[in-house]
Amino acid sequence: MNARAERALRRVIVTADDFGLALPVNEAVERAHREGVLTAASLMVAAPAAADAVARARALPTLRVGLHVVVVDGTPLLPPEQIPDLVDARGMFGADLAGAGVRYFFVPGIRRQLEAEIRAQFAAFAASGLAFDHVNAQCHMHLHPTVFGIMVKVAREYGSPPMRIPYEPFAASWRATHDARGLRFANAYLLAPWLALMKLRLRAAGIAHNDRVFGLGDSGHMTAARVRALLGELEPGVTEVFFHPATSHWDGMTDALSRYRLEDEFDALLDPGVARALGEPGVERIAFSDLTAARA
């Protein structure tokens, strides 16, 4: 491939978040990889169905798996007495992202607890025997400077796996969907200075990353029709398209997640039209670890 063709190539990473959260999620990940277009999944190592997810991943050697770091809205790996400033009375991470963000900045000693929890999650992933394809965070919490700094530090000790940059281009996502204009504008432009700095820091640390994502303004609503429209807006470079699929809802899921169209997102990963869009000339479906291999 000549240099001009290389620059024009549209590389796409298709990822499922929340691998290990529940059996319907794990079932969707396995089927979407076997029968559909799913490239990779992001594993929550402390989630209730994490062991089942690891077993499925070991039986699917072509499925790439990364670490989905959880420091909000989920289950910690460490016991509450080791991270008292991170968890609520139930020993869980709370779902108040803004409140957590403020605490992570200002509570004395909380950075040590965050680093201990994040290190424990990296170590648990490594102990699974799975290769790190990538790293990202629940609710994109690696946008928080404290969390991001710790994740970069620890990632370098585990081979510097690539990291998600949650930048969704406003014009492309708006043309594809014509909804949520304010949210899309805020995601694209208000975060732009920090996202640019994140990219610089990742490059300085030798950590690869994607150029952009689709799925940020449409989390929980990545239907087949919406995904086909978004894929029609692909640009040269590396685009991650991420999903939250499940084969069904389940008892005990959070109110926020219960409002997601999880089954529709699963169907989108099996949709023939989505597969055709990803098979067009000039489009290449890859994984995050392919970025590291290409750079080596």
Automatic annotation (TrEMBL):
Keyword Metal-binding: yes
Protein name from the UniProt record: ChbG/HpnK family deacetylase
Pfam family, one: YdjC
NCBIfam families in the cross-refs: HpnK
Cofactor: Mg(2+)
Keywords: Carbohydrate metabolism, Hydrolase, Magnesium, Metal-binding
Keyword Magnesium: yes
Gene Ontology MF: a single term: hydrolase activity
Gene3D superfamilies assigned: Glycoside hydrolase/deacetylase (3.20.20.370)
SUPFAM superfamilies (UniProt xref): Glycoside hydrolase/deacetylase (SSF88713)
Classification of source organism: Bacteria, Bacillati, Vulcanimicrobiota, Vulcanimicrobiia, Vulcanimicrobiales
Gene Ontology annotations of biological process type: carbohydrate metabolic process
Organism expressing this protein natively: Vulcanimicrobium alpinum
